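Let us walk through a complete example step by step. Step one is to write down the protein sequence. Step two is to encode the small molecule, adenosine-5'-triphosphate, as a SMILES string so that its atoms and bonds are unambiguous. Step three, shown after the inputs, is the structure prediction itself.
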Amino acid sequence: MSEARTIVIGNEKGGAGKSTIATHLVTALLHGGARVGVIDLDLRQQSTARFFSNRRTWLEAAKVSAPTPGEYRLSDDDAALAKADAGEGLARFEDAYGRALAETDFVLIDTPGSDTPLSRAAHGRADLVVTPMNDSFVDFDMLGQVDPVTLELIKPSIYSETVWEARKTKMAQARTSMDWVVLRNRLATTEARNRKRVEERMTALSRRVGFRMGPGLRDRVIYRELFPFGLTIADLSPTVRPVPVSLQHVAARQELRALMRALGLSAYSGEGGLAAAGA
Ligand SMILES: Nc1ncnc2c1ncn2[C@@H]1O[C@H](COP(=O)(O)OP(=O)(O)OP(=O)(O)O)[C@@H](O)[C@H]1O
Ligand SMILES: [Mg+2]
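Step three: the predicted structure of the complex.
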């Protein structure tokens, strides 16, 4: 049996959509029949960990079943671990990661919106890094610096360097390469001019620092309103339907499928759950 694939969701910019993408990818993979292990390295916020604990509670209360991932916690008290020395956190990560690798097909790691030793360690293990970013030059700044007058690309910036370092670590330790996909998140319908400019700079940057552009996700209520239930659009079905189904959901499912395809995960595109929802 081959070793699990490690997918790291990262961007040192806060609020870019990492935890949203993480929970959507995990649920889609689960519905595609994969065994998935989840590690949430955002020890302070624990959004992804909370999502899956909400999921267990909701499924139990609603008396319905849906696939759940293995949850690999670093400690029972992550807030305290966040304050402990880095070595302690890293040792616990190695332990949780090792168990997840042995027991699952995919290890999904959500990271905090800042540069931490844990986040770097995870990036150094990634087979695939997925980076969501808001469609704005403020977020673009984490990937590349743009000339304030001409808006031309000057150089890659801090997060690109983090991924670059991680690539070197991965190659040196595991002798395998890393795929890096950047996708724009929370796309609005009204910002055509800004979007085009960001897209041009992204294309230029992607060639310089070696990432691929993935299909973006629009800003949709459905991407956030199922969080308290620990569910995503990949879960919705005639029996799992805490909100009324609308055309928005159909469009969101198509976006999620397109993302899975771009990430090379179409074998697990969650079609079972998506089709069963009757969209
Ligand atoms: N495509 C989207 N449509 C609508 N809302 C979204 C979308 N993506 C993310 N959000 C919302 O934006 C906010 C930030 O998203 P999220 O928590 O996933 O980002 P993050 O990168 O994990 O943030 P942090 O760096 O703080 O961990 C949340 O309120 C989330 O529900
Ligand atoms: Mg998060």
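Step four is interpretation. Residues 18-19, 42, 45, 47 surround magnesium ion (ligand 2) (CB under 6 Å).
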